[in-house]
Amino acid sequence: MSGPVTVALLNDFDIVVNGLAEMLSPFDDIAVVEMSVGSVHIDRHVNVALYDTFGRRGMPWSELDDVVASARADHIVVFTFTFVGEVIAEALERGVSGYLWKGTSAEQLAESIRRVATGETVVDRAPYPAMRDGGYRWPFAEYGLSARESEVLALVTEGLSNPAIAEALYVSRETVKSHVKQVLRKLGVSSRVEAATMAISDRSFARQLRQMSEREERQPSLGRAR
Fold this sequence. Notes:
The protein is globular and about 55 Å long. It contains 9 helices and 6 strands, in the order βαββαβαβαβααααα. The chain folds into 2 domains: 5-123, 3-Layer(aba) Sandwich (Rossmann fold), CATH 3.40.50.2300; 141-201, Winged helix-like DNA-binding domain superfamily/Winged helix DNA-binding domain (Arc Repressor Mutant, subunit A, Orthogonal Bundle). The protein is an alpha/beta fold. Helix content is 42%, strand content 16%.
């Protein structure tokens, strides 16, 4: 490949997209040419579209399908904490070329993007124990929240219960309960309502409205319209 690998970054949160751009900025052979917040629309052709699933209710299947169908990206990479065998298999079946764990270092992420750009399918074998520093940012990191705890808080602000969050993130209810407990402790609040109020009043936690709704969510409304 001649020239740098061109990359588009996709997520609903501006701070997440900017954090990914910062994470990749030291690598001269990787060029972030588009940062799409709140939409899966890509304006220009890129070698790799990196989709960060932070704050999403489950895997965004319809949006990934739309990116594949648009042909604006040669390859799509999912950047996520969700490492469930059937989810990974379905992502690959739908045309995703990379499935990467968020605990990876900047160097490992860059190397995976390079490999994907050459046509290789890259799937991390096992999750790393923790998110490493290297540019990646998420809302309320300054309060000591881990990336996963911040993601749980994002779903709390949408009014999801612990069971619903567990289903959305493919984890156990006890895991969510533990994350919520840590979120409350680190934020210095005593209830979910207080945590949500604190989050939505902070600009870093502003989720951009998606221009495209999940296909699964659109179908019932279309049915009712008939």
